[in-house]
Specification:
240 residues; homodimer; 0% strand; mainly alpha; DNA-binding
Chain lengths: 240, 240
DNA sequence: AACCCGGGCGACCATCGGACGCTGGTGCC
DNA sequence: GGCACCAGCGTCCGATGGTCGCCCGGGTT
């Protein structure tokens, strides 16, 4: 470099590495269904790499149950969710669904903070709730937020965002029937598949068009269900 | 399940795991510059995990040079690029820049195919040129396309897309000066930084707004340059 | 032929998105 | 108190985005 005042090239050349991220549920109104279960046991999906499947699942040792001589400051796990109707707060050592959905709103806020920070630093700016966001939430003290939980109930939150009426309906129904959270969670899929159908099976688009949902990945299982139903729709064969 | 015709729940419950795939460059017109290089040697960026840096770079053994007794069908590497002006085809064992840019268009087509396939299969649909796309290109016989190469020149292609005039200008200039590809590649950064400045330093947005660029990740170095220049712009301190 | 320059791209790494299933909290008897 | 159920989330895994630098092609002497 010389006195030409154009040091930019050197600047570029020297930038180094940076780091910084069962029952029998009811479908409510819809009866447009010919859901044949059997086919689903053996997943029909083809794949580019059909070999080498399932060779994982070894080394599953998963150290749980604290070894002697370790820090014993593990947080107790969160209380389980129960099916509550809108506005109802859970009794006993349980959490209600309003609280569950609030967790999603909290994540949205944490994402906003991460975006702000990464913009200030000139780093890649996430558009979705990523590992980085979960890490940030934990750092900010929201230790009750974690990835497996949030991913587990995304589609329930999706229904809540896309059709509050129907979501509330379903909650009341499952609560009154005394169903557990797992059953309610399963039931949340159907209305979403129906919405996908009405939108040309573009579930990704359904998520992206909603302000609050845009930041959440479409759950694999939901995408697969849509694919299966779509195939049935366009399928001229009938096994009746 | 019973005879209610609503087998959907079971269907959902049984979906199993699926798998699927130099010199002193000139800034042309722009002279808005006070690029101080020194600061760039020690990267100032803070980071959430500042420790453990650089402890990598071990285990660098990188088996090259074929061991005896292996398939010897390795393709010869592509001819190096040279700086050519638009329309000029490279002489000798060299490739020209028109060819380089055509590679990007080919990748766009391969991405289109991957998107088509993943939509048919109900899998996640990539919006960018991902590893999967490079794999697909290779499978389709385009073995001359590879990730490190394409990522290396993305910003050059970006300039070509965003300001053909200026890109052509720069090519001619560097060709006439007898500069090598590396020097030309470095020079491509400046006009892009200038464009970012004119767009509120939103380089991501600059890429996303262009039909052809949208599918390419913004190179880290370009993002960093924009960040550094932005800091200088808003910096009231001057070290002269 | 011998040399050296420079850049192509194989291979590596941290981290990601995604999922499983162990562990233990919880309500019921 | 004891037990069975079920769901929270620690932990793992294949694959991704991103990069370095080895190796060798190619032009020059």
């Amino acid at each position: 470099g010389a006195d030409n005042g154009l040091m930019f090239p050197d600047a570029i050349a020297t930038i180094g590495p940076l780091n910084l991220n069962s029952k029998e549920p009811v479908l409510l109104e819809q009866s447009h269904t010919h859901f044949g279960a059997p086919a689903l046991l053996a997943i029909p999906e083809p794949s580019s790499d059909n070999e080498k499947r399932k060779l994982g699942r070894k080394k599953q040792k998963r150290r749980h149950s604290r070894e002697p001589g370790e820090d014993g400051d593990d947080r107790p796990r969160e209380h389980p969710f129960i099916v509550t109707e809108p506005g109802e707060l859970a009794r006993g050592k349980k959490n209600g669904l309003d609280y569950l959905f609030d967790l999603y709103e909290q994540c949205a806020r944490f994402l906003g903070e991460v975006q702000q920070i990464s913009k200030e630093r000139g780093e890649k700016c996430p558009t979705k709730v990523t590992n980085q966001v979960f890490r940030h939430a934990k750092l900010k003290g929201a230790s009750y937020i974690n990835k497996p939980k949030m991913r587990h109930y995304v589609h329930c939150y999706a229904l809540h965002c896309l059709d509050l009426e129907q979501s509330n309906h379903l909650r009341k129904l499952y609560k009154d029937r005394g169903e557990n959270v797992g059953a309610w969670r399963q039931a949340c899929y159907y209305p979403l598949v129906e919405m996908a159908r009405q939108n040309g099976w573009d579930i990704e688009g359904v998520f992206n068009r909603n302000e609050k949902l845009r930041i959440w990945y479409v759950p694999t299982k939901l995408r697969q269900l849509c694919h299966i139903e779509k195939s049935k729709d366009s399928d001229s064969c009938s096994y009746e």
